[in-house]
């Protein structure tokens, strides 16, 4: 259109000389009219009533053949002569006709002939807003870096509007946005243009492209406008760091997972593009050990397992990760890798305290041990059940979490079970469950709860008599089921009396061994049995004891030879049994009576004739000891018969005693005496007798001398006084001239024999009622108790010394007697002395 416009302009200029010529002609005629019409009227539109305006009538016009003369090539107007009006003939475009020139008009002449008249008509074309502002391009492109500074200007293309005046371009409008502002300028030639100004920072990442419209608006009514698109591409700058899409990545991995197990992927995005947005990942600040456990792929952000994870060591790993773009911007985040527990740990039992031994009298419920059980696994895998053998008297009590007390469930008896092996088992609740056990060896310590018990309820032991003192008789033994000191048994004798003397004087007991020893030698004949109580006492505190009765039976031994009671065998006596010559066969001469203080077999006596003057005359009853004649006594038989009877007991070995039985076969006593004078004496020295005689002699001698002195003094005194002697009757000391002489002849001294005949009331008693023990110089004629027996006992001191002592004693006694009775028997005394010597 611009070209067209120029082209029109040039056409107008070329028409100019011709128009000037016409003006010269018309002036001569007169008349000039001016019309103003808007452009772009339709063909035939009325411009003006020329006839009227010129003051001509239509006739004239017709007659004058009025016509329009113009220099323009285009005939814009037409004169309607019949009506005298001027109408638009051709479209009138002001912009074509005049371009920018204002006001825009064209002129032409109306020529009339007859007369020639020339009228100038000027038609002014008024502009109408028929042109919109126009941009030369539809679209303009900008590439702006996002780092562009605020206030940067960007020149925009200007628009053109063919219209003029107010219909021409008035202003620019930029579609609303908050980033760019618009500033309008007018160039010196009046053209309007605009600049875009950056008001807010660009962000490629939020708006990488912008599409704006620049609108050019004219001032016509209505407005017309033209638009151009502004296409803005925001160029990237590395202004965005990479950003992880999560601040924390959670992942789990089971503790026994294999290597290269996928764990998780981290992802950071960088809003920048190109290399500015290329992100690489790495772990930051990671502990060295963990570097071998986890791997982070630099490009993909995939984390995998490369080592071993152990829940028990670390329940989770918190690892810092970092993403870096090529521009060096970074972001960091965390990865929390939780290790999932697998039941790979058995419970661990720790015995915190354990008291062993425990006393057997501990009450049920006593705590024996405190156990701590730890399972490194968690939750179900770490939930522990603790148990112990139900067969043992223990149970487990849970006191605190993971702490268990092992308590006793019933009473103990060390004597039955001295120790327990307690198995404590801890099991977790994992699947499969793992368990572990520990064995506690609990010893039960002893309490003195058992008294010693003797092996037998009573003891009977036998001890042969005549034991050597100190001999061990036997042992009692007691057992104590307790232990050690509580079972250390000591034995004691309970203090009792046996025959009035304390037990301990008979037996003693070894307190250690329980061996009972005899303290003395026992004589069965004195004591037949010992009844003791032995006490066994243990060493506990307090001690316990028990008793047992012990009976020690003294066993007889053949330690006593038979004792012949009859006939009595005393040292100096001589007994003879009288057998009348008239005695028949079977005449009971006498009976040997013997006893044995032993008992039983040992006291079972048998009698045998050992020697006899005439074996054919007598026999001895084996059992009863009766001596009987076995044939008729004849006159030829000697008066003096001597039988040796041996009495044997039945002991092993047997003991025996012999007794000599003198038998006088005679009818009268004198006959007997004559025969028996030479009876030999089986004499034994009796030291004791000698001793007592000497002692008595010494005492009596002393008394005698003392008395003698006193008496002599008194007598002399009395003699001087009165010279009178008192006489009184003296007791008669029987004196018999010696009839028997001492045939043993141990001494050379002559002997005096005293003899007396006496009757004993008891044949077993041999002591005579006359005189003292020492003065048995008697001859006893005794018809036996049976009445048929007679016997003669002749006793005399056996040795010369004893005789002498005896005589002295007798002498002294006489003297003393005389002295005390104040009698004068000096003569008799002297007779004694002289006889003795
Ligand atoms: C990262 O995350 C974004 C969106 O969050 C996604 O479009 C992209 O594919 C992810 N990248 C990877 C490597 O998964
Ligand atoms: C982040 O990226 C990872 C990897 O692509 C994806 O699995 C995860 O869902 C993303 N997280 C969010 C919140 O988009
Ligand atoms: C307990 O165990 C020990 C050693 O294993 C063993 O010597 C002892 O005899 C056991 N005791 C019991 C009562 O089983
Ligand atoms: C043992 O015997 C004594 C006396 O004989 C008596 O006091 C005591 O009670 C007895 N002890 C026992 C345990 O029988």
Question: In the CATH hierarchy, what is the architecture of the largest domain at level 2?
Answer: Sandwich
CATH superfamily of the largest domain: Cadherins
Helix content: 10-25%
Number of helical stretches of at least 4 residues: 9
How far apart are the first and last residues' alpha carbons, in Å?
Answer: 222 Å
Shape: rod-shaped
Unreliable stretches, pLDDT < 50, 5 or more residues?
1-28, 679-684, 724-798
Query: Which molecules are bound besides the chains?
Result: 2-acetamido-2-deoxy-beta-D-glucopyranose
Radius of gyration over all CA atoms, rounded:
90 Å
SS strand fraction: 35-45%
- CATH topology group of the largest domain: Immunoglobulin-like
Total discrete domains: 6
The CATH C-level class name of the largest domain: Mainly Beta
Overall residue-averaged pLDDT value: 80
- Profile the largest sheet: 4 strands, mixed
The SS-based structural class is mainly beta
Widest sheet: strand order?
1-7-6-3
- Beta strand count: 55
Pfam family, one: Cadherin_C_2
GO molecular function: calcium ion binding
Domain Cadherin: 79-135, 136-244, 245-349, 350-454, 455-564, 579-676
Membrane topology: Single-pass type I membrane protein
Task: Describe how the helices and strands are arranged.
Elements: H1 2-26, E1 32-38, E2 46-48, H2 50-54, H3 58-63, E3 67-69, E4 77-80, E5 85-88, H4 94-97, E6 104-112, E7 117-126, E8 134-135, E9 139-145, E10 153-155, E11 159-160, E12 169-174, E13 180-186, E14 192-198, E15 209-218, E16 225-235, E17 242-244, E18 248-254, E19 262-265, E20 268-270, E21 279-284, H5 288-291, E22 294-296, E23 302-305, E24 316-325, E25 330-340, E26 348-354, E27 358-359, E28 367-374, E29 384-388, E30 394-398, E31 403-408, E32 419-428, E33 435-445, E34 453-454, E35 458-464, E36 472-475, E37 478-479, E38 490-493, E39 497-498, E40 501-502, E41 507-509, E42 515-518, E43 529-537, E44 545-555, E45 563-566, E46 576-579, E47 588-591, E48 593-595, E49 606-612, E50 618-620, E51 626-629, E52 640-648, E53 656-665, H6 669-676, H7 687-722, E54 779-783, E55 790-794, H8 800-821, H9 826-836
Parallel strand pairs: 1-7, 9-16, 18-25, 27-33, 35-44, 46-53
Antiparallel strand pairs: 2-5, 3-6, 4-5, 6-7, 8-11, 10-14, 12-15, 13-14, 15-16, 17-20, 19-23, 21-24, 22-23, 24-25, 26-28, 28-31, 29-32, 30-31, 32-33, 34-37, 36-42, 38-43, 39-40, 41-42, 43-44, 45-48, 47-51, 49-52, 50-51, 52-53, 54-55
Helix pairs in contact: 7-8, 8-9
The structure holds 2-acetamido-2-deoxy-beta-D-glucopyranose (4 copies).
Pfam family, one: Cadherin_C_2
Function: Potential calcium-dependent cell-adhesion protein. May be involved in the establishment and maintenance of specific neuronal connections in the brain.
Main location: membrane
